[in-house]
Write a structure and sequence with these properties.
By secondary structure, the protein is α+β, with helices and mostly antiparallel strands. It has one domain. It contains three helices and four strands, in the order ααββαββ.
Length: 112
């Protein structure tokens, strides 16, 4: 009986870990969509029209829930979907690559 309880607790902990990772990835993908839509709305398409993003700056004091936008922005910059101008402003990268992406089900899926 003691072994069964231990196995159930271990399975419960593994399930909770996967649940936490699932919700974290969903929030990151939601933040990616927010950033891409924000840059499209501001028409930041070239280095000349690049904009500053206030949520990309580090705060000394964080209150409330975790902000996934800085992590999502780093991901988008690493994939060159968002680029950084020499002044440190942000603009959309390859427009064709962004148009070919779908943020469906928490994954970037190429439609080509």
């Amino acid at each position: 009986m003691n072994i069964i309880n231990t196995i159930l607790i271990i399975l419960l902990m593994i399930g909770l870990l996967f649940l936490a990772l699932f919700f974290s990835s969903r929030r990151t993908w939601s933040a990616c969509r927010f950033i891409l839509n924000d840059l499209k709305r501001q028409q930041a398409l070239t280095p000349e029209t690049a904009v500053e993003l206030p949520y990309c700056q580090r705060r000394l004091l964080r209150l409330g829930f975790r902000d996934y936008r800085p992590q999502a922005l780093n991901f988008l910059v690493s994939r060159e979907l968002v680029r950084v101008s020499p002044e440190g402003r942000f603009y959309l990268g390859d427009e064709q690559a962004i148009d070919g992406l779908s943020l469906k089900g928490g994954r970037f899926l190429s439609q080509s």
